[in-house]
Amino acid sequence: MHAKIMKSLILLLHLLVSDGILSNASPISTKGGGDSGGSGGSFDLLLTWSPFGFLGNVSIGTPPQTVTSFVDWTWIGQYAFTTTCHGNPERTLDCFAKDQAIFNQSQSHTFRNESASYPSRTWNPNHFFFYQDLSVDYASDIETIGPSSTRLTIQAADQHFNLTDAPYPFAGVYGLSPVFKGDNASIQSPFYQAWLAGAWPEPFVAFHYCYNGSADTSKSTCQGHDGLQTLGGYNDSLVRGALSWYDIDFFPEVNVVDFVYEPALYNYWTLNLTKLSLGDKPQALNESTGAGAIFDHASYGRGAPLSVNAYAELIAATAATPITLDSPPNNGNQSFYRVDCATAATFPPIRYQFQGHERLWEITPSNYVEKLGDLCILNVRTLGDGDFIAGNFGETFAKDKYVVFDFEKNKVGLADLSW
Predict the structure, then answer these.
(1) Is 296 a catalytic residue?
(2) Is 400 a catalytic residue?
């Protein structure tokens, strides 16, 4: 079933690329982070929305090759499609569509094989190709983003199955997972590696989402794009009030109910959720596992994160009725429900509290009720069973908020967005 879903998405994306909807976003400006966020030299990576997640451009190799990358808060390195298919760099078209963009390692004179330091690795299952192998060889090369240009350890793909139906709209994955003590370069974010090498002035990465329907109708604060992933600082002018900082939590349940990898991965920006409510009505959290809020702004981060039980309460509170959708607003396994558009503004906000502050963060009904044509749909995504175990906090949660990751202290910063 996963393979069919993946092929459908690939075909959809091929059409989007052909129609010019997904253009390559070129980083064109730099911004200092202000007194708190950096002393200059940070860079706004311009993001384009896609069904997979946000896309941005990086360059790898010498001479530099543009590698449009899926920017992923939940991945552990810089992954790149290469010419290698079934272990052979000459068999590219046995695995990829002829117009698939790749990083051609043979054309970079700074490319180095790092297999002596880091053996090849395969994950199965994984959350890129599900039950097809995600296999990488380790190498190093020069990666350039804005003012940052440095040698990094990268994950050079060795494709083991057929992706010839249609091209992906990206050639790599720019991973932004946190780095834990003892992690070597094979599982370190490319940003973290570059920051350690002195290529970024500050250990901060920030996200600002110019979603359709936001107060910024022209998307001017995102330079006309769908979002900004600021590297090496953050923009104080986008912070209303002050940032609240939270320590991230090691949460092993994520590899059971959310992102299932073998071998397991645990490098996630996860906060300990201490309260969940619909309006002022508290919702139960799982007492045996705790409750993890996993920050992920790719496709799994679409929809308001709720437990199965809290979703049932919201359905009842909004007098929602079941509906079958050909194109649902998120990829969760839960059922979808429609509501009366005329009463949506009266629905309760969904509120979350994270360990470390008393502040409650809201998803308003205007941001969790999705308008699909004439329909209004509850855009909710659930994980697990019963009370809240885990949820993905991404696009829907990030609306009207500013999200900052501190790679040095492993903290998440949240603020209301100043449009």
Answers:
(1) yes
(2) no
Across the strands, what pairs with 306?
382
44, 236, 296, 387: the active-site residue: 296
Is residue 32 over pLDDT 90? no
Residue ranges with strand state E in 324-368: 336-339, 350-354, 360-363
**How many whole angstroms separate alpha carbon 47 and alpha carbon 208?**
10
First vs last C-alpha separation in the chain: 42
State how far the Cα of 374 lies from the Cα of 377, in Å rounded to an integer.
10
pLDDT in tens, 247-303: 999 999 999 999 999 999 999 999 999 999 999 999 999 999 999 999 999 999 999
> DSSP states of 107-162 as a string?
G-TT-EE-TTTS--EEESSBTTTBTS-EEEEEEEEEEEETTEEEEEEEEEE-B-S-
Rg (alpha carbons) of the chain, rounded to whole number = 21
Q: Which of 44, 72, 226, 249 is catalytic?
A: 72
pLDDT in tens, 200-229: 999 999 999 999 999 999 999 999 999 999
